[in-house]
C-alpha cells in the first residue's frame, strides 16, 4: 500500500465533505451517541486530552466546553477544517482548545503528554494502523486511556462487503475492524481493553460518490447485504453499520 497516496486521498475526500457541510453533518451526528460517549470516557478536570482525527471537532468542542480545566487538542490532516475549528473556538472564547495538523503518520506531539486519547469515526481511514496506535501509545502517559469509536463489519460479513461498499467513495477508507482485531492491535502497544459498549449508525451516501455500486452488490451474498439494511432513494444510499466503542488503558 502507498501510505502517502492513501492519506492524500483521505485528505481530499474530507476536504470535499467538510465543504459540503450539511450533508457531512447528516452523515455523522448523533446526539444520543455523543452524550453516551461523553459520560463513558469519564473526563476529570486537569486532564490533557487528544482528539485524534478530530474533523469538525465533534468531540473536541463539547469536551472542552464541559471541562474548562482540561487542555484539549484536536489532531487531523485536514488543515482547512482545523482553521475553521480554531476560528470557531476563538469566537466562542474556548481558551482550552487548540487544533494541530499533521502528515497522517507521525504525531507532532511529545512522549507521555496525554491522559486520554479519543477518536470517533476516523481510524478506518488510517493506512498504517499499527504505527498510528503505536503513536497513541507513545503520547499517552502511564495509566492513560484510549477511547475508540468506529464502525465494524457484521458477524456474517466475512468477505467484508461493508469495506468494498465504503471504498466506493474515494476518501481513503481502509478497513473496519472487529472488536477482537482492535484488542489484538492495541495489546501489541501495551493498551488493554477495560470497557466497551455497542451502538449503530444509519449511514447515508450520495449516489454520485458511489460509482460501481451495482458491481459491489453482485460480488457479495444477498444475505450479507440485507444484514446492513441497505436502502436506496433516487439520490442516496443508506445502510446501518454497527459501531464498536472501546476503552483501553495504557499498562
Unreliable sequence segments: none
Question: How many angstroms does the end-to-end distance come to?
Answer: 31 Å
CATH class: Alpha Beta
Shape: globular
CATH superfamily: Vaccinia Virus protein VP39
What do these coordinates show?
By secondary structure, the chain is of the alpha/beta class. The protein has one domain (3-160, 170-201, 243-250): Rossmann fold, CATH 3.40.50.150. 37% of the residues lie in helices and 27% in strands. It contains ten helices and eight strands. Strands 1, 2, 3, 4, 5, 6, 7 and 8 form an eight-stranded mixed beta sheet that branches. Helix 6 links the parallel strand 4 and strand 5 (140-152). The longest helix is centred in the N-terminal third of the chain and has 18 residues, at 3-20. It is globular, with a radius of gyration of 18 Å.
Helix-strand layout with pairing:
Blueprint: H1 3-20, H2 22-28, H3 31-40, E1 48-52, H4 60-66, E2 71-76, H5 79-91, E3 97-101, E4 114-120, H6 129-139, E5 140-152, H7 161-166, H8 179-187, E6 191-206, H9 213-219, H10 222-226, E7 231-232, E8 236-250
Features:
Rossmann fold, eight-stranded mixed β-sheet, alpha/beta, 251 residues, 27% strand
In short:
The protein is of the alpha/beta class. Helix content is 37%, strand content 27%. It is built from ten helices and eight strands.
Amino acid at each position: 500500500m502507498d501510505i502517502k497516496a492513501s492519506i492524500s486521498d483521505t485528505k481530499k475526500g474530507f476536504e470535499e465533505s467538510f465543504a459540503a457541510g450539511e450533508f457531512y453533518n447528516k452523515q455523522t451526528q448523533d446526539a444520543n451517541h455523543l452524550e453516551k460517549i461523553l459520560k463513558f470516557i469519564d473526563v476529570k478536570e486537569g486532564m490533557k486530552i487528544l482528539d485524534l482525527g478530530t474533523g469538525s471537532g465533534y468531540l473536541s468542542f463539547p469536551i472542552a466546553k464541559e471541562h474548562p480545566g482540561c487542555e484539549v487538542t484536536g489532531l487531523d490532516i485536514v488543515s482547512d477544517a482545523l482553521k475553521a475549528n480554531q476560528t470557531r473556538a476563538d469566537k466562542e472564547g474556548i481558551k482550552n482548545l487548540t487544533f494541530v495538523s499533521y502528515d497522517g503518520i507521525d504525531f507532532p506531539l511529545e512522549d507521555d503528554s496525554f491522559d486520554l486519547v479519543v477518536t470517533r469515526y476516523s481510524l478506518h481511514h488510517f493506512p498504517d494502523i499499527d504505527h498510528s496506535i503505536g503513536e497513541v501509545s507513545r503520547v499517552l502517559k502511564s495509566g492513560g486511556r484510549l477511547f475508540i469509536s468506529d464502525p465494524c463489519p457484521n458477524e456474517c460479513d466475512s468477505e467484508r462487503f461493508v469495506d468494498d461498499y465504503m471504498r466506493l467513495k474515494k476518501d481513503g477508507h481502509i478497513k473496519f475492524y472487529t472488536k477482537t482485531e482492535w484488542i489484538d492491535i492495541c495489546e501489541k502497544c501495551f493498551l488493554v481493553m477495560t470497557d466497551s459498549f455497542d451502538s449503530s449508525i444509519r449511514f447515508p451516501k450520495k449516489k454520485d460518490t458511489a460509482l460501481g455500486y451495482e458491481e459491489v452488490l453482485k460480488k457479495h451474498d444477498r444475505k450479507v447485504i440485507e444484514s446492513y439494511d441497505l436502502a436506496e432513494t433516487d439520490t442516496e444510499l443508506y445502510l446501518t453499520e454497527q459501531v464498536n466503542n472501546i476503552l483501553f488503558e495504557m499498562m
